Structures are given as C-alpha cells and as structure tokens.
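Example 176.
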Amino acid sequence: MTTDGTVDTELDVTPLHMRKALGRFVSGVTIVTTAEREDESAVHGMTANAFTSVSLDPPLVLVSIANRAKMNERITETGRYGVSILAGDQEPLSLHFAGAASEPDLVRFVWRKGVPLLEGALVHLACTVVDSHPAGDHTLHVGRVEELRYDDGHPLVFYTGSFRSLELVRDDPWGF
Ligand code: FAD
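Predicted structure in complex with flavin-adenine dinucleotide:
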C-alpha cells in the first residue's frame, strides 16, 4: 500500500495488462478507410484509435493496424488511406466499423483525392502510404497527407474502453 492509500502491485506485462494500462491514455476515435477505386462498393473501413501525427513538414501521420485485421491487407494493396476523426455524436459509427453494431444507414462517404472519408467527421485526412513498418502483431502505416479539412466541434473521446465527451479545462493557451 502506498502513502495515499492506493495499491501499488507490480503487474506481469501481459496483453490484458497492456490493454488496461494503455487504455488510460486518452485518445480520439477515427475511422480508417481505403478503396481500390472511387466506388462505394470497393470501400473498406475500420475503427482505430492508434493514430498519431508524425511530422508537419512533410505532413505525415501514422495508423497502427492489427496484422489480422482485413484493413492491413487492404491498405497494403491500395497504398492509400483516409482518416476521419469522429465528432462527439458519431459513436454509433465507431461501433459499426469495429464490428460491434450494425448501423449501415448511418454510413455515408465523401471522396478526397480518390480516398473515401466519413461524412460528418471533425477532420478528414487523405493519405498516401510512404512507409509500412511491421511492429509485433500490428503494422505501422505512415501516410503523407495529400488533402485535409477540419471543422470546429466536439470530438468523440475514448478512455478505459468507454466513449466519453470532452470537458474544457483551459481555453486554447497555444492559439489552435
Ligand atoms: P471487419 O471487422 O470486417 O470490418 C469492420 C466493420 O466495418 C464491419 O462491421 C463491416 O461491416 C464494417 N464495414 C467495413 N467496410 C464497410 C463499408 N464500406 N460500408 C459499411 N460498413 C463497412 N484495431 C486496430 O488494428 N488498430 C486500432 O487502432 C484500433 N482501435 C480501435 C479503437 C476502438 C475505439 C475500437 C472500438 C476498436 C479498435 N480497433 C483497432 C479494432 C478494430 O476496429 C476491429 O478489430 C475491426 O473489426 C477490424 O476491422 P477489419 O478490417 O478486420 O474488418
């Protein structure tokens, strides 16, 4: 027991404990999408929160995709992907694209640079894959952002396996 009363037990580094520990890092939620051609029937999408910015100049981002996810093979084939950062009211889409619910009527795509993106998202990034790195049971796909757009609004937030909304703590000290 520590001085503040919390239990400080050393844990084995298992996949479950990794998931629980890293689930305490707050993230947004994205839908990653790709398509061989500009045709809705060719689109594949999946929910991902292992997304990060990498570089501003050149403009690079990355997504970490499970090797067993269909998306991994699809991105490798197409060499392109879209990232739609979801707005606070788009939780049903995040469940749909994780295979945890079926909401086909909510799915509407828009196209940027031949890449499909989800209508109503806060941010759209259309990317070309410039590098793919195998990393354990995932692959890191680094994408160069070819086109982007963003809106103001509230993001969908993911923490400890739950979807949440964002509360303002301090108003924009960096001038974003
Ligand atoms: P599937 O499981 O076959 O497809 C996913 C779902 O999307 C299916 O229900 C399918 O019907 C639907 N779908 C696909 N294309 C379309 C389309 N064109 N139109 C309509 N519906 C379509 N996994 C990772 O690898 N990396 C992550 O960073 C990650 N983050 C996650 C974050 C959250 C909050 C959640 C809930 C899950 C996350 N996952 C992540 C898990 C991942 O979303 C699921 O394992 C997903 O099912 C993998 O998709 P798949 O490519 O294997 O395809």
